[in-house]
Design a protein that fits this description.
By secondary structure, the chain is mainly alpha-helical. It is built from two helices and two strands; from the N terminus they run ααββ. It has a two-stranded antiparallel ribbon. β1 and β2 form a beta hairpin. The longest helix is centred in the first third of the chain and has 23 residues. It is elongated. The relative contact order is 0.14.
Length: about 100
Amino acid sequence: MDRKTTGMLLSIVGLALFFGSLLLILPIPGLYILSLFLMFVAVVLIGVGAAFARGAEKSLDVPKDDCYYCKGTGKIKSGTEYSTCPRCGGTGLARPDDTVD
């Protein structure tokens, strides 16, 4: 299953769990804390599912490619001195907008 499908499925399960907890478990005396915990879990599922469906978690990945400007060293030669690469900020890693999908 791809991430968009998984994200939508997680969001739907989260919504069902939230409303089930709100309407079925919350009115039962003595299960108030359990209902609140299940609602919290449901909200987390909805958020993670929405992030998966929109592809927002891909921007959190650390790039594995080397910076094309400094070739992964993090330094560039300017005259006789070395300075920090302006493209990668000295990390030596490619920026997310440098990678081609």
